Amino acid sequence: MEAGGLADSLLSGACVLFTLGMFSTGLSDLKHMRMTRSVDSVQFLPFLTTDVNNLSWLSYGALKGNWTLIVVNAVGAVLQTLYILVYLHYCHRKHAVLLQTASLLGVLVLGFGYFWLLVPDTETRLQQLGLFCSVFTISMYLSPLADLAKVLRTKSTQRLSFSLTIATLLTSASWTFYGFRLKDPYIVVPNLPGIFTSFIRFWLFWKYPQEQDRNYQLLQT
After folding, report:
1. How far apart are CA 197 and CA 165, in angstroms?
2. C-alpha span between 35 and 46 (Å, rounded)
3. Which ranges of 24-66 would DSSP assign to H, the alpha helix?
4. Which of 63, 76, 175, 186 could form an S-S bond across to 54 if both were Cys, CB 3.0 to 4.6 Å?
5. Three-state DSSP class for 39?
6. Distance (Å, rounded) from C-alpha 98 to C-alpha 191?
7. What is the pLDDT of residues 44-75, one digit of tens each?
8. Quick one: pLDDT band at residue 3, thresholds 50, 70, 90?
């Protein structure tokens, strides 16, 4: 195998491994919901937005004929759908959750209808769908900035997950390098904010260690 082909295979494998590892972090929420038979302290919106993101990138991968994108996002969509169904099962506010789900899925269906029915040229469709996926992914990576601002105000990182931060950094970095190899800006650009926000989180973990937070809380009890 040539050096270039080997590098592509390694990067593809890294993207699959790290991304599925990041998606699997939701299994801890799944376990919590099943054990407590409730959705206390579990956020629903990340499951829904990640599912929509996976379905969007799955369409982009299918249109591009890229099996790395197809496999990762197909598995991701299945996992996120599982999390959503379990959340709905244990949630008492089903009406609000179903309304959010129907609204976002309605936007997704309209988007797919536009891309597949009203944009006949494949290259134009690929570019517009790639742009949509990029903007959606960037908004997902930047949405936790409100939580980071709260960490600065409270000087506590208890709201942050160190393992998820590592997973996000590895995933974003691997997809960025993979996008460079493919010369695909729609893959490169949306993963740069993931790297940026991950380093911000590492700095916050260093500045406000979680062990220090626990000791402070013990003193207050």
Report:
1. 9
2. 21
3. 26-36, 45-64
4. 76
5. coil
6. 30
7. 888 888 999 999 999 999 999 999 999 999 99
8. low
Long-range contacts made by residues 38-45, C-beta under 8 angstroms, separation at least 24?
38/90, 39/87, 39/90, 39/91, 42/87, 44/84, 44/87, 44/91, 44/97, 44/100, 45/100
CB atoms within 10 A of CB 46: 16
**Across 15-29, 65-79, 161-175, 207-221, least confident range:** 207-221
- Go through the chain and tell me how many residues it has: 221
pTM for the whole structure: 0.85
> Which has more confidence, 115 or 147?
115
Terminal Cα-to-Cα distance of the chain (whole angstroms): 62
Query: What's the rounded Cα separation, in Å, for the pair 28 and 3?
Result: 39
32 to 21, 40, 163: CA distances (angstroms): 18, 9, 17
Residue 190's Cβ-side half-sphere holds a number of Cα atoms within 13 Å equal to 17
Reading the block at residue 134, the tokens are: 């990029």
Phi-psi group of 66: left, alpha or beta (phi > 0 → left; psi -120 to 50 → alpha; rest → beta):
beta
In whole angstroms, give the CA distance from residue 120 to residue 125: 7
Enter the tokens of residue 191: 């993963």
